[in-house]
Backbone:
């Protein structure tokens, strides 16, 4: 039932410029996933693919926000874990489902966050 296990990784540097310096930031991000192909629960044109994922990002803002705290520049750290399922339906068309849980810790507590997201929709391979 289970095929071979592979891995994929992503590293990114993001620069976000904004009109207000307290909204501009530099971010580094790292993500890893382990795609696993397996036979689905009904006859399908391709194997199903399940991708468990994990990631981390750190954001450092350019200037303090004078309204929030005039002496502290915001710094956020986000940890995330989730899974993506690609279900083939017909030829190159499928349905994708992604579930992710993310925790953001900030040096300014009003930006701390726990977030569960669920996204689904059509997929096309080409």
Residues:
């Amino acid at each position: 039932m289970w095929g071979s296990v592979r891995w994929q990784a992503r590293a990114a540097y993001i620069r976000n410029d904004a009109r207000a310096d307290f909204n501009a930031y530099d971010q580094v991000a790292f993500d890893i996933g382990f795609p696993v192909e397996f036979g689905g629960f009904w006859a399908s044109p391709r194997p199903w693919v399940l991708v468990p994922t994990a990631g981390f990002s750190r954001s450092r803002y350019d200037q303090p926000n004078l309204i929030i705290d005039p002496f502290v520049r915001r710094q956020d750290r986000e940890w995330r874990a989730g899974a993506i399922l690609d279900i083939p339906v017909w030829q190159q068309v499928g349905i994708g489902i992604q579930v992710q849980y993310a925790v953001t810790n900030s040096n300014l507590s009003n930006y701390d966050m726990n977030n569960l997201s669920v996204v689904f929709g059509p997929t096309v391979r080409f």
Summary: The chain has a mean pLDDT of 92.
